[in-house]
Amino acid sequence: MEVDLCFVMDCTGSMACHIDAAKNCILNVAKYMEDMKPSIKIRVGFCGYRDYCDGADRLLIFPFTDSCMNLENDLSTVLAKGGGDIPEDVLGGLDAAVNQMTWQNKIRVLFHVGDAPPHGRRFTSMTEDYPEGDPNHLTAENVLEKMQSENIFYFFGKINNLTEKMVNIFHSIIGDFSVFDLEIVEGNPEALISKFFEATCSAINTAVSLRE
Question: In what residue span(s) does the Hemicentin-1-like von Willebrand factor A domain sit (predicted)?
Fold first, then answer.
């Protein structure tokens, strides 16, 4: 079994209490899968996103690797910072993962973790800087439909209820997908590591069963 696993994650300041635990979990998953060789061969990649106001720091793209050391070195540079209003460049992050990552293996898993919706009145009624939506003209339809055409399975890790409308819209575009509860009591990062690990393994198992 050969798997490409890409984590797409909100890396803005609001994720400060989650991001270290999430990075630890990504490494735990990679090390666990490395120990499963040769029955499972996995490449892990990472695509972090912030917001349009963050300029060159808006996207963090680390290519797929089967080396835990390379992955650890990459993730050590990821910090929770930036972001302007509450919505973030979710569509930009997903688009980068679909189009800029080099997907190769038959089983392709995209695990998205975030605590805020994309920009636009379609996704939120909150006051924001881009009520008309993505200024780069990305839409949920063109991003998610391209994801489907590339045979990439989408999974979402929910941290709070701000993404509820986004999830419903995504469901209306690509159909059913698993949403994992990653909400934790603040100050208990170990609980997030456990939830994140279980959710990631479940996502991989689901993708494998759907591809068989």
Answer: 5-122
